[in-house]
Amino acid sequence: MGYLTISDYRNSIQQSIFSQLVQNSYAKVVLAENAALDIVISHLTQKYDVTQEFRDIAPWDPNVTYNIRDRVVIDYAAWLDANPYNVNDCVVYNGIGYVCINANSDSPFNPNNWSELGAQYTIYYASFPRRCMYQGAQVVPTLADPIAPMFDINKNYFLNDMVYWNNALYQCTMATADVQPCDLKQYYVYENVPLPNVLPDDPVNNTDNQYWGVPIPIAVPLGIPPIVNARPGFPWTAGDNRNPQLVECMKRISIWMLSDLVVTNNRPMVWEDNYKSALDKLKGFSEGKTTLRIPLIQPNVGKRVRYGGGVKQQWAY
Fold first, then answer.
1. Residue 56, domain member (yes or no)
2. How much of the chain exceeds pLDDT 70, in percent?
3. Helix/strand/coil (H/E/C) assignment for every residue in 91-138
4. Quick check: 73 and 60 in contact, CB under 8 A?
5. Which residue of 9, 15, 76, 121 has the smallest Cβ count within 10 Å?
6. Which of 222, 123, 92 is nearest to 100 (CA)?
7. Residue 104 phi/psi, 5° resolution?
8. Taking a C-beta distance cutoff of 8 angstroms, is the pair 286, 44 a contact?
9. For the chain, give me the number of helices (H) and strands (E)?
10. Where do the DSSP E strands lie in the chain?
11. Total domains, the chain
12. Distances (CA, A) of 3 to 29, 41, 142, 247
Protein backbone atom coordinates (compact mmCIF):
# COMPACT_ATOMS: atom_id res chain seq x y z
CA MET A 1 0.00 0.00 0.00
CA GLY A 2 0.95 3.65 -0.20
CA TYR A 3 -0.15 6.91 1.39
CA LEU A 4 -3.80 6.32 0.45
CA THR A 5 -6.04 3.32 1.04
CA ILE A 6 -8.87 2.07 -1.14
CA SER A 7 -11.37 3.08 1.55
CA ASP A 8 -10.18 6.71 1.25
CA TYR A 9 -11.99 6.99 -2.07
CA ARG A 10 -15.38 6.00 -0.69
CA ASN A 11 -16.46 9.52 0.24
CA SER A 12 -15.12 11.04 -2.98
CA ILE A 13 -16.38 8.79 -5.75
CA GLN A 14 -19.10 6.18 -6.12
CA GLN A 15 -17.87 2.60 -5.84
CA SER A 16 -19.29 1.61 -9.23
CA ILE A 17 -17.55 4.51 -10.98
CA PHE A 18 -14.30 3.85 -9.14
CA SER A 19 -14.45 0.19 -10.26
CA GLN A 20 -14.82 1.34 -13.85
CA LEU A 21 -11.74 3.53 -13.52
CA VAL A 22 -9.68 0.79 -11.89
CA GLN A 23 -10.91 -1.98 -14.25
CA ASN A 24 -9.92 -4.71 -11.76
CA SER A 25 -6.29 -3.64 -11.91
CA TYR A 26 -4.82 -2.36 -8.64
CA ALA A 27 -1.64 -1.58 -10.59
CA LYS A 28 -3.51 1.35 -12.19
CA VAL A 29 -4.30 2.74 -8.75
CA VAL A 30 -0.64 2.49 -7.76
CA LEU A 31 0.41 4.22 -10.99
CA ALA A 32 -2.05 7.08 -10.46
CA GLU A 33 -1.15 7.51 -6.79
CA ASN A 34 2.57 7.55 -7.53
CA ALA A 35 2.02 10.29 -10.09
CA ALA A 36 -0.12 12.23 -7.61
CA LEU A 37 2.48 11.79 -4.87
CA ASP A 38 5.20 13.16 -7.13
CA ILE A 39 3.09 16.25 -7.84
CA VAL A 40 2.32 16.82 -4.16
CA ILE A 41 5.90 16.36 -2.98
CA SER A 42 7.25 18.65 -5.71
CA HIS A 43 5.22 21.49 -4.17
CA LEU A 44 6.21 20.79 -0.57
CA THR A 45 9.77 19.49 -0.59
CA GLN A 46 11.49 22.89 -0.20
CA LYS A 47 9.64 23.78 2.99
CA TYR A 48 8.28 20.63 4.62
CA ASP A 49 9.87 17.40 5.79
CA VAL A 50 7.91 15.20 3.40
CA THR A 51 9.56 11.99 4.65
CA GLN A 52 7.78 12.47 7.98
CA GLU A 53 4.32 12.76 6.44
CA PHE A 54 4.40 10.46 3.43
CA ARG A 55 4.79 7.07 5.04
CA ASP A 56 3.16 3.94 3.68
CA ILE A 57 0.05 2.48 5.26
CA ALA A 58 0.75 -1.26 5.33
CA PRO A 59 -1.04 -4.07 7.18
CA TRP A 60 0.31 -4.49 10.70
CA ASP A 61 3.03 -7.17 10.77
CA PRO A 62 4.09 -8.72 14.11
CA ASN A 63 7.58 -9.28 12.69
CA VAL A 64 8.23 -5.59 11.93
CA THR A 65 9.60 -2.97 14.34
CA TYR A 66 7.69 0.30 14.02
CA ASN A 67 8.86 3.82 14.76
CA ILE A 68 6.87 6.74 16.13
CA ARG A 69 4.27 8.09 13.66
CA ASP A 70 4.40 4.92 11.53
CA ARG A 71 0.89 3.89 10.52
CA VAL A 72 -0.69 0.51 9.84
CA VAL A 73 -4.06 -0.75 8.65
CA ILE A 74 -6.06 -3.85 9.57
CA ASP A 75 -6.49 -5.53 6.19
CA TYR A 76 -5.70 -9.19 5.60
CA ALA A 77 -6.92 -12.21 3.66
CA ALA A 78 -10.17 -13.77 4.81
CA TRP A 79 -10.04 -16.64 7.31
CA LEU A 80 -10.47 -20.05 5.65
CA ASP A 81 -12.25 -22.94 7.30
CA ALA A 82 -9.93 -25.78 8.42
CA ASN A 83 -6.88 -23.98 7.00
CA PRO A 84 -3.70 -24.43 9.10
CA TYR A 85 -2.59 -21.20 10.82
CA ASN A 86 0.57 -20.48 12.81
CA VAL A 87 1.20 -18.03 15.63
CA ASN A 88 1.30 -14.40 14.36
CA ASP A 89 -0.68 -15.18 11.20
CA CYS A 90 -3.27 -12.47 10.58
CA VAL A 91 -6.71 -12.86 9.02
CA VAL A 92 -10.06 -11.11 8.67
CA TYR A 93 -13.15 -12.91 9.90
CA ASN A 94 -16.63 -11.37 9.65
CA GLY A 95 -15.09 -7.94 9.04
CA ILE A 96 -12.78 -8.13 12.08
CA GLY A 97 -9.00 -8.51 11.98
CA TYR A 98 -7.35 -11.16 14.14
CA VAL A 99 -3.81 -12.33 14.91
CA CYS A 100 -3.23 -15.98 15.71
CA ILE A 101 -2.07 -16.70 19.28
CA ASN A 102 -2.38 -20.51 19.16
CA ALA A 103 -1.57 -22.58 16.08
CA ASN A 104 -4.76 -24.17 14.78
CA SER A 105 -6.75 -25.46 11.84
CA ASP A 106 -10.14 -24.82 13.39
CA SER A 107 -13.52 -25.59 11.93
CA PRO A 108 -15.48 -23.52 12.79
CA PHE A 109 -13.66 -20.34 13.84
CA ASN A 110 -12.53 -20.49 17.48
CA PRO A 111 -11.96 -16.98 18.96
CA ASN A 112 -9.91 -18.47 21.81
CA ASN A 113 -7.07 -19.04 19.35
CA TRP A 114 -7.08 -15.50 18.07
CA SER A 115 -6.57 -11.96 19.40
CA GLU A 116 -8.80 -9.24 17.97
CA LEU A 117 -7.10 -6.32 16.19
CA GLY A 118 -10.14 -4.25 15.25
CA ALA A 119 -12.48 -3.77 12.32
CA GLN A 120 -11.11 -4.24 8.84
CA TYR A 121 -9.58 -1.05 7.38
CA THR A 122 -9.03 0.45 10.86
CA ILE A 123 -5.92 2.64 10.82
CA TYR A 124 -3.52 2.84 13.77
CA TYR A 125 -0.41 4.93 14.27
CA ALA A 126 2.49 4.67 16.69
CA SER A 127 2.01 7.30 19.40
CA PHE A 128 4.54 9.83 20.65
CA PRO A 129 6.12 8.84 23.99
CA ARG A 130 4.36 10.47 26.94
CA ARG A 131 7.71 11.36 28.50
CA CYS A 132 8.07 14.43 26.25
CA MET A 133 8.29 17.73 28.16
CA TYR A 134 8.23 21.36 27.04
CA GLN A 135 9.09 24.21 29.40
CA GLY A 136 8.75 21.87 32.36
CA ALA A 137 5.29 20.50 31.48
CA GLN A 138 4.25 17.30 29.74
CA VAL A 139 3.49 17.86 26.07
CA VAL A 140 1.22 15.63 24.02
CA PRO A 141 -0.19 15.90 20.50
CA THR A 142 -3.36 17.94 20.09
CA LEU A 143 -5.74 18.59 17.22
CA ALA A 144 -4.21 22.05 16.82
CA ASP A 145 -0.60 20.79 17.05
CA PRO A 146 -0.40 17.08 16.18
CA ILE A 147 3.42 17.09 16.14
CA ALA A 148 3.96 19.06 19.36
CA PRO A 149 6.38 16.55 21.01
CA MET A 150 8.81 16.74 18.09
CA PHE A 151 11.89 18.92 18.44
CA ASP A 152 11.42 22.41 16.99
CA ILE A 153 14.56 24.42 16.41
CA ASN A 154 12.68 27.68 16.99
CA LYS A 155 11.16 26.85 20.40
CA ASN A 156 12.51 27.97 23.78
CA TYR A 157 13.49 24.88 25.75
CA PHE A 158 14.11 24.67 29.49
CA LEU A 159 16.74 22.54 31.19
CA ASN A 160 15.63 18.87 31.35
CA ASP A 161 12.90 19.28 28.72
CA MET A 162 12.45 16.07 26.74
CA VAL A 163 11.87 16.03 22.97
CA TYR A 164 11.40 13.40 20.29
CA TRP A 165 13.71 13.54 17.28
CA ASN A 166 14.68 10.94 14.65
CA ASN A 167 13.45 7.86 16.51
CA ALA A 168 14.91 8.85 19.88
CA LEU A 169 14.24 10.92 23.00
CA TYR A 170 16.66 13.69 23.96
CA GLN A 171 16.86 15.58 27.25
CA CYS A 172 17.84 19.25 27.19
CA THR A 173 21.15 19.86 28.97
CA MET A 174 21.40 23.57 28.14
CA ALA A 175 18.36 25.84 28.00
CA THR A 176 17.69 27.90 24.88
CA ALA A 177 19.60 31.18 24.96
CA ASP A 178 18.13 33.87 22.72
CA VAL A 179 20.35 36.53 21.20
CA GLN A 180 19.74 39.77 23.08
CA PRO A 181 18.63 42.83 21.06
CA CYS A 182 21.77 44.72 22.05
CA ASP A 183 23.89 41.93 20.55
CA LEU A 184 22.03 41.63 17.26
CA LYS A 185 23.90 44.47 15.60
CA GLN A 186 27.16 42.51 15.65
CA TYR A 187 25.71 40.14 13.04
CA TYR A 188 25.14 43.03 10.61
CA VAL A 189 22.34 41.28 8.67
CA TYR A 190 19.51 38.99 9.80
CA GLU A 191 20.84 36.05 7.78
CA ASN A 192 23.89 35.87 10.07
CA VAL A 193 21.93 35.64 13.34
CA PRO A 194 22.45 32.09 14.73
CA LEU A 195 19.56 29.71 15.28
CA PRO A 196 18.25 29.56 18.86
CA ASN A 197 18.88 25.82 19.24
CA VAL A 198 21.17 23.02 18.11
CA LEU A 199 19.74 19.87 16.56
CA PRO A 200 19.81 17.01 19.10
CA ASP A 201 21.73 14.76 16.71
CA ASP A 202 24.03 17.49 15.38
CA PRO A 203 27.31 15.64 14.61
CA VAL A 204 29.40 18.80 15.05
CA ASN A 205 27.86 21.09 17.65
CA ASN A 206 26.50 18.47 20.05
CA THR A 207 29.32 15.97 20.09
CA ASP A 208 29.81 16.27 23.87
CA ASN A 209 26.06 16.38 24.60
CA GLN A 210 26.45 19.93 25.84
CA TYR A 211 23.00 20.88 24.47
CA TRP A 212 21.15 17.57 24.37
CA GLY A 213 21.86 14.39 26.28
CA VAL A 214 22.56 10.88 25.02
CA PRO A 215 19.75 9.67 22.72
CA ILE A 216 17.27 7.16 24.11
CA PRO A 217 16.04 5.03 21.17
CA ILE A 218 12.24 4.78 21.01
CA ALA A 219 10.22 2.27 18.98
CA VAL A 220 7.15 0.09 19.32
CA PRO A 221 8.31 -3.21 20.87
CA LEU A 222 8.33 -6.03 18.35
CA GLY A 223 5.07 -7.94 18.21
CA ILE A 224 2.94 -5.46 20.21
CA PRO A 225 -0.39 -5.54 18.34
CA PRO A 226 -2.63 -2.51 17.82
CA ILE A 227 -5.94 -2.85 19.65
CA VAL A 228 -8.99 -0.61 20.08
CA ASN A 229 -9.55 1.10 23.46
CA ALA A 230 -6.02 0.42 24.66
CA ARG A 231 -4.84 1.68 28.04
CA PRO A 232 -3.17 5.15 28.33
CA GLY A 233 0.46 5.06 27.29
CA PHE A 234 -0.12 2.16 24.89
CA PRO A 235 2.21 2.55 21.88
CA TRP A 236 -0.63 2.40 19.32
CA THR A 237 -3.47 4.85 18.78
CA ALA A 238 -6.57 4.04 16.75
CA GLY A 239 -6.93 6.87 14.28
CA ASP A 240 -5.46 8.54 11.24
CA ASN A 241 -2.41 10.78 11.69
CA ARG A 242 -2.24 11.78 8.03
CA ASN A 243 -2.81 15.43 7.22
CA PRO A 244 -6.44 15.62 6.00
CA GLN A 245 -5.70 18.37 3.48
CA LEU A 246 -2.98 16.29 1.84
CA VAL A 247 -5.20 13.21 1.81
CA GLU A 248 -7.86 15.21 -0.02
CA CYS A 249 -5.34 16.64 -2.50
CA MET A 250 -3.92 13.19 -3.16
CA LYS A 251 -7.38 11.72 -3.79
CA ARG A 252 -8.43 14.46 -6.18
CA ILE A 253 -5.23 14.23 -8.20
CA SER A 254 -5.29 10.42 -8.20
CA ILE A 255 -8.87 10.30 -9.49
CA TRP A 256 -7.91 12.69 -12.28
CA MET A 257 -4.92 10.53 -13.17
CA LEU A 258 -7.06 7.37 -13.16
CA SER A 259 -9.66 8.98 -15.40
CA ASP A 260 -6.94 9.88 -17.88
CA LEU A 261 -6.33 6.15 -18.38
CA VAL A 262 -9.96 5.36 -19.17
CA VAL A 263 -12.23 8.25 -20.19
CA THR A 264 -9.88 10.94 -21.42
CA ASN A 265 -12.44 12.65 -23.67
CA ASN A 266 -15.46 12.17 -21.42
CA ARG A 267 -14.35 13.10 -17.93
CA PRO A 268 -16.81 14.85 -15.60
CA MET A 269 -16.02 18.53 -15.23
CA VAL A 270 -16.08 18.23 -11.43
CA TRP A 271 -13.05 15.94 -11.56
CA GLU A 272 -11.11 18.56 -13.47
CA ASP A 273 -12.27 21.28 -11.05
CA ASN A 274 -11.19 19.16 -8.09
CA TYR A 275 -7.82 18.51 -9.73
CA LYS A 276 -7.23 22.23 -10.32
CA SER A 277 -8.33 23.15 -6.79
CA ALA A 278 -5.87 20.60 -5.38
CA LEU A 279 -3.05 22.17 -7.39
CA ASP A 280 -4.07 25.64 -6.22
CA LYS A 281 -4.04 24.49 -2.61
CA LEU A 282 -0.58 22.94 -3.01
CA LYS A 283 0.67 26.14 -4.59
CA GLY A 284 -0.61 28.05 -1.56
CA PHE A 285 1.32 25.73 0.74
CA SER A 286 4.53 26.13 -1.25
CA GLU A 287 4.24 29.93 -1.37
CA GLY A 288 3.52 30.25 2.33
CA LYS A 289 -0.01 31.59 1.89
CA THR A 290 -1.25 28.76 4.10
CA THR A 291 0.68 26.49 6.46
CA LEU A 292 0.33 22.73 6.76
CA ARG A 293 0.38 21.06 10.16
CA ILE A 294 3.20 18.72 9.20
CA PRO A 295 6.88 18.87 10.20
CA LEU A 296 8.95 21.63 8.64
CA ILE A 297 12.48 21.12 7.39
CA GLN A 298 14.87 21.82 10.27
CA PRO A 299 16.81 23.96 10.10
CA ASN A 300 15.17 25.95 7.36
CA VAL A 301 17.58 25.68 4.43
CA GLY A 302 15.43 27.39 1.81
CA LYS A 303 15.81 31.12 1.21
CA ARG A 304 13.22 33.27 -0.54
CA VAL A 305 14.54 35.15 -3.53
CA ARG A 306 14.52 38.90 -2.88
CA TYR A 307 15.11 41.53 -5.53
CA GLY A 308 16.67 44.91 -4.89
CA GLY A 309 19.97 46.36 -3.74
CA GLY A 310 19.00 47.28 -0.16
CA VAL A 311 20.15 44.66 2.37
CA LYS A 312 18.12 44.54 5.57
CA GLN A 313 20.44 45.56 8.43
CA GLN A 314 20.08 45.88 12.16
CA TRP A 315 19.15 49.34 13.40
CA ALA A 316 18.45 50.51 9.85
CA TYR A 317 15.12 52.24 9.19
1. no
2. 88
3. EEECCEEEEECCCECCCCCCHHHEEEEEECCCEEEECCCCCCEECCEE
4. yes
5. 15
6. 92
7. -160, 165
8. yes
9. 6, 12
10. 57-59, 71-73, 90-93, 96-100, 114-119, 123-126, 133-134, 137-138, 162-165, 168-171, 216-217, 236-238
11. 1
12. 12, 12, 22, 8
Q: The pTM is what?
A: 0.84
- The reply to whether 2 falls in a domain is no
Is 283 within a domain? no
Residue 177: inside a domain: yes
Supply the range of the domain harboring residue 174.
Answer: 130-217
Q: Provide the pLDDT confidence category of residue 261 given band limits of 50, 70 and 90.
A: low
Beta-carbon count within 10 A of 268 CB: 13
Distance CA 98, CA 96 (A): 7
Report the alpha-carbon distance of residue 54 to residue 35 in Å, rounded. Answer: 14
Phi, psi (degrees; rounded to nearest 5) at 78: -70, 145
- Measure the CA dihedral 135/139/143/146, to 10°: 90
Lowest mean pLDDT among 20-24, 98-102, 306-310: 306-310
268: left (phi over 0), alpha (psi -120 to 50) or beta: beta
Of the listed ranges 20-34, 72-86, 176-190, 219-233, the least confidently predicted one is 176-190
Among 152, 122, 132, 133, smallest CA distance to 68 is for: 132
